[in-house]
Amino acid sequence: MFNYTFQWRQALQKLPLLLDGALVTLQIALLSMAMGIAFAVVLAVARNAKSRWASAPASAWIEVSRNTPALFQIYMAHFGLGSFGIYLSPYVALLAGITFNNAGYLAETFRGALRAIPGTQMRAARSLGMTSIQAFRLIIMPQMFRIAFLPTTNQMVWAILMTSLGVTVGMNSDLAGVTQDINVRSFRTFEIFAIAAVIYYLIAKAVTLGARLLASRLFRY
Amino acid sequence: MKTTIILGSLLAATGLGTSASADKLDDIMASGTLRCAVVLDFPPMGSRDADNNPIGFDVDYCNDLAAALGVTAEIVETPFPDRIPALVSGRVDVGVASTSDTLERAKTVGFTIPYFAFTNVVLTREGAGIEKFEDMSGKTVGSVSGTFEGIKLEENIKEWGAGEFRPYQSQADVFLALSQGQIDATVVTSTVASAIVASGQYEGLLIKGDAPYPVDYVGLIALRQEYGMLNYLDLFINQQVRSGRYQELYDKWVGGAAPKLTIDNVYR
């Protein structure tokens, strides 16, 4: 039986604090996605490269980031590097961990998208006099982003939810950190967690809808 | 037909119907098991020995309580921030988990009279440049999320307007962060500080004086509406002191004169 009386009024008084935390969460998610996409493009190209020197490090990054828990990656960024005297603040460690994770997953998404683009496009672009970099930037990459767009928004939602792992490295300004802080002070666990869950849901939903709108403008045929 | 109704109402009126009104204390005695939430990374109150068995003051306290109730004790390892969810979701019956009895928390859970009292000290690292409490102003400090001293220290950092506070999820993470240099100091209960310095598990940790906080009285916790249970726990704590068992456990785990559990000039 559930021996608990919900006190919503007491919990809702903390809403402004939670919303401040939500902004930090959104900020980390957006930054980690922006950096993750940049790294992922490089990783995707490097993994397909003929040179071992390019493909091996890219493969290692992708393998580790996709096959270990995000919690482990974030913990390592804070305490793992800390044991070598490299101190990342909780904010930076969280950002680094999620970026690392995003880059690995997105690299595979982009690699798949690259495979879906017929090789003849590159040859056609080159025969029109474009350099290989121009051809990649102007012809291949826009198509890659179009194909990979929906999986990318998926990763964005995942990035938002991953920010909640920051509490393990002492993060106290994001939504999960603020939630935990209020929880331990008031012990109103269920109300506070329920409100936080709704906020997470709304952020994720808003991002997905925003991405749809963006896609319909960007990728019109 | 008529007999079954009569039989049914008789049963309901007597023994078999009591389960509906049985309180927590009845449930514990009926089940034969007392489940205690204990924090096991908080020596000497709770930790694990070389064979991974739970040991510590709180573990012994739970065993004593179970013995008094005539049931077996079950130690449920519970991190600090999870004490209330564990209690409310019915995973444990009582929290023997060094819980500071703040008024804010008492709105949610029921506290007994104090069963232990902590004083807090500044724990720092060699070369961090901290000699006393006030030196922490402007430094990066940390503590366990949700502890009495953690909440106080966060307030101090806000007051000073200089420095940074980091809440970690466990005491072990705080010591790890301190020994690595991620944070420069922490405020921690004196018992825990001496235990961790004495263990030699982390190098270069130093105790640098008291933190000017009021004595941190901690109570056992149970569900707020379980008066029968809370009443029993209060009496149990009283008996532990009266019988000398409190001092005995203090000698075993900490040493010295056990802290006084009463406050002058006021009841309870």
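qc> The mean pLDDT of chain B is 88.
qc> done
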